[in-house]
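Standup notes, structure subgroup. Blocker cleared on the adenosine-5'-diphosphate input:
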Amino acid sequence: MRVASAPDFGLFAPEDAAARAIQRVRVLLPLPVPEPFDYRAPVSMGLSPGDHVIAPVGAREVLGVVWSVEEGEDAARGADNLKPIIERLPGPPLDETARRFIEWTARYVIAPPGAIMRMVVRTPEALRDPPTVHVYAPAPDFDGKLTEARRRVCDVAAQAPLTPAELARRAGVSPGVVKAMIEQGALIRLARSEDPPFPEPDLSRAGQALSPAQESAAEALKALVRAGGFAAALLDGVTGSGKTEVYLEATAEALGADPSAQVLVLLPEIALTQAVLARFEARFGVSPVEWHSAIKPAMRRRAWREIAAGRARLVVGARSALFLPFANLRLIVIDEEHDPSYKQDEGVAYQARDLAVARAKLGGCAIVLASATPSLETLVNAQSGRYAHVKLPARHGAAVLPDVELIDLRLDPPEKGKWLSPKLAEAAAESLARGEQTLLYMNRRGYAPLTLCRACGHRMQSPETESWLVEHRYSGRLVCHLTGFSMPKPKACPKCLTPDSFVSIGPGVERIHEEVVERFPGARIEIFSSDTAPNGEAVRALIDRMEKGEIDILIGTQIVAKGHNFPMLTLVGVIDADLGLKGGDLRAGERTYQLLSQVAGRAGRAERKGRALIQTYAPDEAVMQALASMDRDGFLAAEARARESVGLPPFGRLAALIVASPSEEQANAAAHELGGAAPNTDGVDVWGPAPAPLSIVRGRHRRRFLVRADRGVDLSAYMAAWMSRVKLTSAVRVQIDIDPYSFL
Ligand code: ADP
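Run returned:
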């Protein structure tokens, strides 16, 4: 019931006037709460949705985003009890699309919106005005005498004002000289923003002359971009067919649409970024803005601000770049769209490829998914007409696809204690004799995946985790690839105390290296893994050596599978093709096909024909047969039929739910309670609870549910409804993974 208001005598009490001058604002905070919080702010602060503010939360001051604003009498009522907004930050507001994307993602992945916001607004410094540095230019009215050294400083400063240290360095003088010139009045001080805008891409430059097939693919993508609004396309072409050249043309089209148009290119690995950056630079005369985990804080701040302001036009980044606050995004390109690193499993679990499509829909922009081995999800979307299917059938120029041969390890086994079959070893020797390069692919870091005591059978295991320790012989340590735990390799078995009793079981890249060094003394052999190339610089250096022919045999993990062009590489050997097929992963076959055909595709990129030899114990498996005949579409069609018959993705939906607790009893009890609370809904199957394949990780006991739903079911809503039915103790952690890629 409304309380009748006091008669209005045409006079406002001063409190009323004050009350009317108040805004009630709802602010989304980076906290795990379901809703924005209410605050008050004076109208004079002029807040609008999307503005960044500092708001009090308990005793803390927290950065948040204004979600909605109400003014007027209704809004003011009771607002006195609300806490006031402390400050409005000057940074560019989050636009409507970015805000809807946060809401959409939160709902889809079942995370608090604040957790998604934290992925968008990660650099509060970017919201304040950029810091300035002092730079020095020649004083125009200075007419004193200058020594030769001082004149050099003036010449340098005349080209561009610089900091004293930079001036001294470029002029080749000591810092004291510059200091003295400042005191003398020969140089004057200017303030320069530390975050200058990025240079504009030059759209007047021409791209490569395209082949007719490339030309028509580029035209198809450009037409999508020109049409404006949401449109998705699969750019489907074998490795080396020129997909990058083609999406560069689509990028040019999008950037040309208007002066603030932005393009985002996502890449699966920073290892790939450098090569792609160089190609963008060649095409547009400027290097794109980079965004990934290795970017330094100052650059992060600058990039974020410029992207939010719509001034950074071209961005190349890892999956997290999808959460950047683009002001006018016209095109998203997802290169190597099938790559599993687009899926984030830790923290907020999301598949960046799928979220990118959602973002493109929300913002009405075009999206291009590029791959030589598209995911079944994307291929089915293309085949059903939801996405345009743009094909590039052949390698560019004279390059042809390699011949792929299977080596049946049952018939042609390596010698005892060795991993290269005679046939592969011979092929490597021939390639070496011809002065060509060989790539040996072994997707396991370290020396050996298992270390066993010969005396008592004890296996070295990661502490409180169900995972074997992997021996890394070069560093002399045993490492858990799951948790990162490592320890020096003990001299004696910790269980039976027998000294020197360990045997190493199975190979990793270091062990293959040992064998190859022994077989080919004098050859230049290197390992390419995240251990030998831990950062972008090391990756670049290694790729550079390989491109220049300074390496004869490269032994690599999956880091080599991606996008590199090695013109002298003619032989690829896959040491253990069966490795990825083990375990209960829905996509094991698909992933194996993708990885191995990408690896095989490294061979023969230039004018020399390549050859790929794949060692397997299961040559009759469909995936091996498909690799041998390069019958991607036949394999995927069979894979699709198999999944469709049981309603698995992309023909149905999956979600995983993992319950974890330090106490096994608690984990079981929570799993039991959750099991009992699962809503009964048509078209939804709940499997579990069951101990997860990795049933203990970092001392936490893990129980899993797998939920399958028909395509028409809103699985996120189902999972949210399920969660709302249970209240678990805080010692139990529940993680929901919509569309899981890891089944461990
Ligand atoms: P993909 O992305 O499909 O693997 P790329 O675009 O990387 O293929 O092309 C493979 C190689 O062929 C690259 O070195 C690229 O520069 C070259 N290339 C492709 N198309 C052309 C073209 N039209 N003119 C000149 N070089 C090209």
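Discussed briefly. The domain at 652-738 is CATH 3.30.70.600 (Alpha-Beta Plaits).
Next: hand off to the docking folks.
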